[in-house]
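Table S7 (text form). Paired inputs.
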Amino acid sequence: MNKREFLLELERYLRSLSTVEKNDILQDYEEHFTFGIEEGKSEEEISAALGSPKQLAREILADYHIEKMETSKSTGNVFRAVWSVIGLGFINLILVLGPFLTVVSLIFAGWILGISFTLSPILVLLNALFNIGTFEWFDLFFSLTLSGLGIFLSMGMYYVSLGFINLLLRYLKYNISIVKGGK
């Protein structure tokens, strides 16, 4: 594969990036070819040394989404980063997606529990309004206790969620370094 074919294929796989970022990356790889030619290598040797443009683009996109996740920890950025790391290899489907879905499910359940406990007094009052004669003070006090517990649980889930995102970021970076052949 010559320089032109390599860069066109790489550009095609990087289409989801902005034009400026894509051009910067392509410029870097054009420099790889320039330096390689100065060292006496052919374009085919250089492209073979760089590897598959498709795999290279996957690694670039994974790094890009991880970097984006570091700056803005929105839900969309988290899912895009996880998905791009999964795209690096089939084994990541098991190593990344399985634990990710498990922990996200547990965190989601914790949030639901905290919110439902917090809103429990409203349910007791609605029950008293629609079922006159069934109100008991014990139910109200018990629901207020649950509400307090729900507030504490929700605050705890907030910190658990932040911790999970930071841990996930470190895990994804580690996974990318393993896929790239680093330590």
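Next pair, protein 2 of 2.
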Amino acid sequence: MTRTNKLALAAAVVAASLSLQGCIVVADGDGVREWDNLAQHERVERDNRRVIASLTEGDALASIQAELGTPNFSELVVDNGTRYRVLYYRTHRVTADGETTKDECTPLVFRDDQLIGTGELALRQIPLAN
């Protein structure tokens, strides 16, 4: 290799390395970049908010679960023969810690498998929750 070729190669390597400065690829064990996970959570939250905003009183639990999927949390209580189920779906972030907590979710409250409301006000309709 001639001296000119060596200099040209060295210049190409330096130019290529300068163009890569600032590029950071973060991967977890599955090869998924952290910002992809963040974007996915944001999409899930946005989609959950959209669906929840379109719900109406009396919607069936099964149809809502079919649309929203598995809830982040689920609770069941029976009071005087009436069955109350609360499904919690992630709708916003409180702490960026990678964990979903109930305070980052919107509760959907069902009485005998029919939606009676969403949010904290709906939770107060459950006799044992008061």
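The longest helix spans residues 34-54.
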